[in-house]
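input
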Amino acid sequence: ADASAVSIYHTVLALDARNQSALKGLASLEAGLLDRALAVAADENFSTAETLLTAAAALLPGSSAWARARKQVDTLKHRRAEDLLTRADTALAARDIATAKDLLASAQTLGATAEDTAALEQMLANASLYANYQPGESFRDAFKDRSGETPTMVVIPVGSFRIGAADSEAGRQTSEVPQRLLAMQTPFAIASTEVTVAEFRRFVRDSGYVTVAEKTHSSIYYDEASGRMAERQQIDWRNDFIGGKARANDPVVHVAWLDAEAYAAWLGEKTALAYRLPSEAEFEYVLRGGSQSAYPWGDGMPDKVFGNLTGDADRSRSKRGWDKALPHYRDGYWGPAPVAQFAANPFGVFDLVGNVSEWVADCWHENYLRAPTDGRAWVNRGCEQRVVRGSSWGSAPEQSRSAYRSSASADTRSARTGFRVVRAL
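output
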């Protein structure tokens, strides 16, 4: 606005507050500024629009025309901020964190509120922590040569939990103590299911790997005639729990710790990413899924089907039942079920309790004294005994407790044990 004209109009109004000529003159100047402010705001030049609004506000304080223009500019800014936040969401979905952060900052400059941006800010914080992923998100890594993909992996949220059994826990073993608090602050993803027969077959065909069972020509299977586990010749990963042909989506069994370790190493080579067996702490953390009860489902017996466990209503092909079983429980399986037949746990992972027990990376130790406090595997060079976690389709009820752990030599193979993998993020 013309500074001299404004000065004259204000001088006149100081003498005569109702002078129509002066009021009309200021209104005309105000209208020009407001029109320009709206025009540049429409072009998303909000900085200039704010300068023009500030200048207009000094002409006729309390002007209704100015208030309307202010509201219109604010509406344009809000729409632009919403558009920027939408674009930021799109950038984040494409794993372009830098662009998403820039767009968020621009939206905040335009007045986006904390309520508007809270969800995006949390997702950006998660993406930075979890290597562009979100907790609970599933993904599969492509092989470097594009010949295949990894098993489906689930991103696990960081947190803390108490590993081991409480002093008051029924069925507690001396190997499950002392219970202690672990901070699980290193992000990782875990396979949503046990490694399947089909996934293991791809590994064998690609690498030419020969399993321990193939080298020794034997494994432990379920003998229906006796109702017991027994050693049998000519059984390997291609077979199911009774020695028949395994289905493609069955969890692979008859695999030793050495075989599981070889599979994880192969995935690492195929993807150039940090695939490995889970640590014992990682396994229990995910198995618990945020719980601290004796069992993943609570402290008592389950009141609904929770997984492939030993139920007193389950029957084998020859109508055998379990000597020790969960009361009033029937899941419909005797032997391993195909993976993911039951509901996932709160972290989105299947079959951590029941179905098959699983190899983890740790060496066996008689208790948790001097164990790592950060969730890493407890490994001693040259150890021969490894840890097995999680119950199987044939475990006694107390072995389905979250803290239950057992040991086996690294070359042990049976129809009750499989494995899954994790990846560092």
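quick obs: Residues 159-424 form a domain with the paralog of FGE (formylglycine-generating enzyme) fold (CATH 3.90.1580.10).
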